[in-house]
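As noted in the main text, all predictions were made from sequence alone. Below is one such record, for SGNH hydrolase-type esterase domain-containing protein.
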Amino acid sequence: MKRRTVNRLVLLPVLLAILPGAAHAERWVRSWAAAPQEALPASANSPMPDLKDRTVRQVVRLSTGGDTLRIRLSNELSAAPLQLGRVTIAISEADGRIVSGSVQTVDFGGAVAIPAHAPLVSAPIAFRAKPLQRVTISIHLPEGADAPTMHPYSAATAWIAAGDQTGAAMLTGAATYNRRLLIAAVDVDAPRTARTVVTLGDSITDGVRATDNADTRYPDILAERLQKAGLRNVAVANLGLSGNRILTDGAGPNALARFDRDVLAVPGVSHVLVLEGVNDIGSAARATQALPTPAALIAAYRQMIARAHAEGVKVILCTILPYKGAGYWTPEGEAVRKAVNAWILTNREADGAVDLARAIADPADPDRMAKAYDVGDALHPNDAGFKVMAEAVDLKMLR
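Prediction:
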């Protein structure tokens, strides 16, 4: 009897080790993101760099930390396969430098190419990162890329240098670039209570005109607020896309078209903050489309709510910011904005609302953005405006 008891005690740890769920179960949350878009035409202000046998180095700031990461690269909006060389991740220092000894090679399960129109997710990487820490991802492209999938606005500097310099503490002969190339997301393996808040929007969410390399976009500051409030395992994924619209394609696919990819498919998503609509309204002034009715925009919001709720995701709607004085403002468009905002603040279908319009408006003329928050075009906030927007979000809605 004693021998049987001893044998059972010896076997118990072995059985626990092989039973499903006995080991740590992965719970991924999206700690950083950039919405993929097709390559923009080269211009005098932003020519497409030569990427053949080049290392592309980019810095991202994680919203929440962990001991295990994975990287998602995107070739989803490119028509040709992309050959990959070495890819590394490291702790960032200033001006493209990395901390010596922190470099780790990223494994993609043996893959050496990303098929056309496909993403590529890395194997888990044992890499300890703190919340709000900057990490550097370096990608060697042996065959280059003529039209790589990118995120056109980055608010961050990238560096491009000849050859495979993915392990170098400092790139030699590097040129700077102002767009995100290939990197779509960084996920963190986190506790079961962890979750992701997605911010869906246009250039205002994307942070156009924010100070470069300073992480002052409203989702960046929201992530800082969550950390200070003790919500260390709540990640923020910025899926803003400059020029985006709800009903029709603008810069990139419309918000309804990308909602599955950029919201519902995000690992750990629990909430989405939606700030969209000003480009739908304003584009009518440029005769690129008809002025949408309030009913059409509200119906689109309702679609987002229905699709999100079907997946257990809560929707927080944000009022459309005032933009009187911007190049595409009209009285007719203003009437649509006010009607939509009134519905956002009174509807009982969404899970909450944030009155960003009121937070950033000029009290003496609420149809305009306050000068203290205006970058100068009456449409985009400055760093102070982004801070006010982030502070207007009641964190209780995200708990």
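The longest strand covers residues 66-74. Residues 1-24 have pLDDT under 50 and may be disordered. These features were considered when defining construct boundaries for the mutagenesis experiments described in Section 2.9.
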